[in-house]
Amino acid sequence: MGFNCSSYDFTSPDSTSTFLYCPSLPAAIFFAVLFGLSTITHIFQAFYHHKWRLSWVIALGAAWETTAFGLRAAATQNPVSDALGIPSSILIYLSPLLINAYAYMVLGRMVWYYLQDKRVASIQAKRLTVIFVWLDIIAFLVQLTGASMASFRDTDSNSTEQEKIDSANAQKLGLNIYMGGIGFQLFWILVFSGFAWRFRVKAVMERDQGCGVHRDSSWKQILVILYFTLLMITIRIIFRLVEFSGGSFNTKLTTTESYFYALEATPMGIACITWNIFHPGRFLVGPDSEFPRLTRKEKKQIKAEKKRLKEEKKYAKKEDKQRHREWKKESKRMERHGADELEMGPLRGPQTYRTDDIGPV
């Protein structure tokens, strides 16, 4: 038997629930199944297309969404307890960052696979991926901090009024931190879209000039999917920014569950399934479809070379110091020699005398 929502005020300050409405069990189950199927498919496709190094991140993102909605479904049976609601909310807040990172990783592979010099806007393909993934990690850490603070509130009935006020202030601060994190994420998505457009311009130019890596025009399809999934993520970010822009949880968007499913769950579900349907592994085929991976022997050689160069640099530095010390010693010796000459006067050579005169010649 489920919880009777009609007799409970979820928006009350005394509410102990994570939710601000009576959560729907069927909707939570539907999205848990949807993301679960997407996760299984992504794992299968990663191995089938030999793209685990690329696809693990979206598989993990979909798995987090699956877990989040599974916990949400369980939480509907006792929504006044935050034991399941809090971890569910945190995972829902953070999962889109992994789906976002996948888009960054896909474009990096596209630059490596399709462009002649394997770079865009003077940035090498692998470095482009690393830069944007690290920016995504920073956004992740900021959002994790904010989401953790915003998800917890004092529900202890024995708490004093001041303790409840302090808890509400901490929750509001967490909300602001989280909004800063998603704003940071949105900014770099827009910058990244510029790099994706630059890739398109360069790919068309190389095709028209008959230079570069001659492959089919499959990059067009991947680029469209890339832009589409970024649009889904952007819709979700804008929803969250508008939802929390008032600095309060008690707004129309936060107290109506249908908005959450329409503008949070649905865009993320569409993004995950779209990558299932148009998996990059269908288009990025062959040895150049992945960044080169060094063998253990090559890694050891590089490590040994770095060690050798370090030793040479250390030895050269030591030699420079030794030469400098010798130079200083020689300079001091010359200075002392010059001072001695000045004090004694110039040395005169042997003097000769004529027999018919007195005095030196």
TrEMBL record:
This is Uncharacterized protein. The chain crosses the membrane at residues 25-44, 56-74, 86-107, 128-150, 177-197, 218-239. InterPro entries: RTA1 (IPR007568). It is found in: Membrane. Residues 301-340 have a biased composition (Basic and acidic residues). Keywords: Membrane, Transmembrane, Transmembrane helix. It is a multi-pass membrane protein. It comes from the Eukaryota. Residues 301-361 are annotated as: Disordered. GO terms for cellular component: membrane. Pfam families: RTA1. It comes from Orbilia javanica. The keyword Signal does not apply.
